[in-house]
Amino acid sequence: MSWWASDETHDPARTSWVESANGHGVFPVQNLPLGVFSPPTGDARIGAAIGEAILDLRACAAAGLFEPALAAACIEPSLNRLFGLPSVQRKSLRQRISHLLSDPVYRDQLTSHIFTASDCELHLPVRIGDYTDFYVGIHHANNVGRQFRPDNPLLPNYKYVPIGYHGRASSIRPSDVAVRRPSGQRKPAGSDTPVFGPTERLDYELELGIWVSSGNELGEPIAITDAAEHFAGLCLLNDWSARDLQAWEYQPLGPFLAKNFHSTISPWVVTAEALAPFRIAQPARPEDDPRPLPYLHDAADQAHGAFALTLEVHLLTAKMREAGLAPYRLSTGPASSMYWTVHQMLTHHSSNGCNLTPGDLLGTGTISAPTRGGFGSLLEISGGGQTAVKLPSGEVRAFVEDGDEIILTASASAPGAVAIGLGSCRAQVTPAR
Amino acid sequence: MSWWASDETHDPARTSWVESANGHGVFPVQNLPLGVFSPPTGDARIGAAIGEAILDLRACAAAGLFEPALAAACIEPSLNRLFGLPSVQRKSLRQRISHLLSDPVYRDQLTSHIFTASDCELHLPVRIGDYTDFYVGIHHANNVGRQFRPDNPLLPNYKYVPIGYHGRASSIRPSDVAVRRPSGQRKPAGSDTPVFGPTERLDYELELGIWVSSGNELGEPIAITDAAEHFAGLCLLNDWSARDLQAWEYQPLGPFLAKNFHSTISPWVVTAEALAPFRIAQPARPEDDPRPLPYLHDAADQAHGAFALTLEVHLLTAKMREAGLAPYRLSTGPASSMYWTVHQMLTHHSSNGCNLTPGDLLGTGTISAPTRGGFGSLLEISGGGQTAVKLPSGEVRAFVEDGDEIILTASASAPGAVAIGLGSCRAQVTPAR
């Protein structure tokens, strides 16, 4: 029996009196992701998704249903304070919510604290302090590296250093906020000088977002064996990218305006606890390929550092929407194509003493499967714009056009566990200003 | 007569009843920088530096000495709200403080709101949202580029794109917070594999920090002709760097752990208004070298986009401190060796719609003069570690050692104006953990 099976919050037999949760596939009572929402006539507050509904955790706190430390965190307008609590307290909140939503005795008391999700507005779940994007999708690194350096796609540091760089926190938005096509400098082929104007190579990047729970003091690294304490949960992340701006600006200090105009995240934090049944060994990193340096090595992490998540990207163009066509699937693949684990990213990031804070966001970098059907960006799918994708509407796409909506989803499944999902990360592109 | 000479806050004849301010050279009544401090027995609050003293602006606000919008901003524990006000209101605060500190009629009323600066603790002046570091020191770019690419030091984008990248906001500290030597991966010469341990090439970088005042909405760029409205003021910034970590990690996405372990800033914000007399034409960028793209071009900015600031770096080793020796000057040079102006940096950063927010910090990147006496980092002064500096203590330095203190200062002077300074940015290095 898996260790998580003894945790009643994962009991496959557990159902909820919120009937839409049972057999929901994304937000059953075994998931219970956390977020911040506004009901139709109210301000922003913390909630938990349950089927097609949201439980108002601020109202639960006010009703005396949580112990004091949890109640104090749940009345805040963001998850930062809750993330700053020790994991044992965050686990007890999960157990409590699971109990409240599964035991019918609470049904009458909680009915007024349950809202229909489609009536609510979802916000960023935290005030994001710093945002860091990694580059752990090894197939993506190979695919992109091959376009820039055909004979040497993977740089010598890749298998030693979890490569990462800082991104922009202020321009991260939740699902359903429109993305304005950015303008910037690009150098047309054959020209010696750049021009300024709307990007002609707008792309998405399929990533997982990693939420940091408790932080570390400046100068005090996180040991790999302690990293679990600092991992709050996952979301989906679309790292929108302007490839023509990127190609011209990125040397020598890395991507800047090509990336920081907008990033979209799915609004629900699927917690580390909810993901426990879906932890698997790291298939993308063979042992001794090379062996990680000691500060990044932990046998337990190697044994279940990856996630049994299936990722999908869909595209819905304006024409498809008008014609009533369903979104077209651009790719599907496993999230396990990550060369470095969440714990290795957290540990590496703090290994020089850099202080992480509750509510920081780390991106994995684009996650691509080894073959085209699972590539995580149009840059890869279209081979740098060479081979456009044919859509059911008769349209073709080498890059993202105005009016297009990109939809990322992820579902987790494991033997003996009830399947869950991360929800969706979606946004539509509007024309340049 | 210069336009600023009609502004009474710059009147060279104006003196303060705080006598240490008169002839102070750094914080005379013509400067009035803003910061956040704690007096010996009190909590953090906003203040203005005046000579060797600090005026408590929260107390002034509580005493009804400011108009309501300014009073509401001055009772906050950081400058963010004040920075978010229109510049006309920030200017009126400057005029009011100048009046209060120069007219002796206020002496008795304000004496209890004046603290001796050396008794106070200085904090970060703002809650920093996002931190971006630029690379506008063209001689630094040349010097460093030459070490990596002898035949091609300046990349083709340099004279079109104000190159920048995102840095870490959480690890920025004010002066006098010790810097712990970071550990990390480096690849020893001749080795195929990296090792992990304390950096052997710790360096400083001499930069100016640019504080963002009012922000812009996501998707709405700042026009170059509106950029002044978004510039709150300057500080000094030491972008501590671990060169061996940097060399190994920085490709392909830029510096990360080599930089984000600690950055030190001077605690006083010297405002755009205080700097008005010291604006000069941009000597580092000849016109049409090439001409900037239209979105970065503004004749007025070209005419006075630079600052008549002289920068200095001093080193005080533990041995020198014990021997009672004065700090040794490592370099001195003009801040005008910047290829791009503050307004061009603000405009470029937002040109893709990226939203800046009040209290964001932009670094200029290392500012080096054309010759060795004005180089802004030990990497440049020592020629990549080849030529150590000889110190009066008999010691030598190719990079920064434990116990060393690095002190950055800047002074502004202009014909007809009272000289001011930015204060000092200083921190001592402690051994690795």
Automatic annotation (TrEMBL), chains A, B:
The active site is at residue 140. The keyword Mitochondrion does not apply. SUPFAM superfamilies: FAH (SSF56529), Fumarylacetoacetate hydrolase, FAH, N-terminal domain (SSF63433). It comes from the Bacteria. Gene3D superfamilies: Fumarylacetoacetase, N-terminal domain, Fumarylacetoacetase-like, C-terminal domain. InterPro entries: Fumarylacetoacetase, Fumarylacetoacetase-like_C, Fumarylacetoacetase_C_sf, Fumarylacetoacetase_N, Fumarylacetoacetase_N_sf. Keywords: Calcium, Hydrolase, Magnesium, Metal-binding, Phenylalanine catabolism, Tyrosine catabolism. Ca(2+) binds at residues 133, 205, 207, 239. Its EC number is 3.7.1.2. Its cofactor is Mg(2+); Ca(2+). Residues 30-125 form the Fumarylacetoacetase N-terminal domain. It holds the Pfam family FAA_hydrolase_N. GO terms for biological process: homogentisate catabolic process; L-phenylalanine catabolic process; L-tyrosine catabolic process. Mg(2+) binds at residues 239, 259, 263. GO terms for molecular function: fumarylacetoacetase activity; metal ion binding. Pathway: Amino-acid degradation; L-phenylalanine degradation; acetoacetate and fumarate from L-phenylalanine: step 6/6. The keyword Metal-binding applies. Substrate binds at residues 135, 149, 246, 250, 366. Transmembrane segments: none annotated. Residues 139-429 form the Fumarylacetoacetase-like C-terminal domain. NCBIfam families: fum_ac_acetase. This is fumarylacetoacetase. The lineage of its organism: Bacteria, Pseudomonadati, Pseudomonadota, Alphaproteobacteria, Sphingomonadales.
